[in-house]
């Protein structure tokens, strides 16, 4: 996704509007859009396309009604990461699981290593990292 697309995800986008003869806000005809409005709209379309093409059908069904890439992104963030309270709760659970991690008697070192790495990588989905000192 290009920088223009990502910028629209970060700052948002709305259809351009203008005042009519009665000073009422109305949608601005696309033919009268400025170059910047046109590029921002294109960035929004690009971002929506990228988001919609990279999610499962079930998530697409939830998200396909949004016309703003920022709105669609916010829904995906909550769906995959949860709210900040849920994120903190997930991190606490991961910390407890990590602290309770022990190698089973019948487990090989390789199997245990895979479990440790899987657990250590889980916080990345929440945009967090377990410090190396905690890993040791």
Summarize the structure.
The protein has helices at 3-11, 35-52, 57-63, 69-81, 84-99, 109-121, 132-135; strands at 17-19, 25-27.
- How many domain regions? 2
Please outline the major beta sheet: 2 strands, antiparallel
Poorly predicted residue ranges: none
Number of strands: 2
What is the typical, i.e. mean, pLDDT? 82
Nearest-angstrom radius of gyration?
Answer: 22 Å
Straight-line distance between termini = 37 Å
Distinct helical segment count: 7
Strand proportion, as a percent range, falls in under 5%
Which descriptor suits the 3D outline? elongated
What is the string of helix and strand elements? HEEHHHHHH
Helix content: 55-70%
User: Structural class, please?
Assistant: mainly alpha
Question: Any overview of this molecule?
Answer:
It comes from Cucumis melo var. makuwa (Oriental melon). This is Gag-pol polyprotein. It holds the Pfam family Retrotran_gag_2. This protein has 136 residues and is mainly α. The protein folds into two domains: 3-81, no CATH class; 84-135. The protein is built from seven helices and two strands, in the order H-E-E-H-H-H-H-H-H. It has helices spanning 3-11, 35-52, 57-63, 69-81, 84-99, 109-121, 132-135, and strands at 17-19, 25-27. It has a two-stranded antiparallel sheet with strand order 1-2. Strand 1 and strand 2 form a beta hairpin. Helix 1 (3-11) crosses helix 4 (69-81). The longest helix has 18 residues, at 35-52. The radius of gyration is 22 Å and the shape is elongated. The model has no long low-confidence stretch (mean pLDDT 82).
């Amino acid at each position: 996704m290009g920088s223009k697309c990502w910028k629209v995800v970060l700052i948002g986008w709305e259809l351009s509007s203008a005042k009519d003869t009665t000073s009422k806000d109305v949608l601005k005809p696309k033919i009268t859009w400025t170059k910047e409005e046109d590029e921002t709209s294109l960035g929004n379309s690009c971002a929506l396309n990228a988001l919609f093409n990279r999610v499962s059908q079930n998530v697409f069904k939830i998200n396909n009604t949004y016309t703003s890439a920022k709105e669609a992104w916010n829904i995906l963030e909550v769906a995959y990461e949860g709210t900040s309270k849920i994120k903190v709760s997930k991190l606490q659970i991961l910390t407890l699981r990590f602290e309770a991690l022990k190698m089973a008697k019948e487990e090989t070192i390789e199997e245990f290593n895979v479990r440790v790495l899987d657990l250590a990588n889980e916080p990345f989905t929440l945009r967090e990292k377990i410090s190396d000192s905690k890993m040791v």
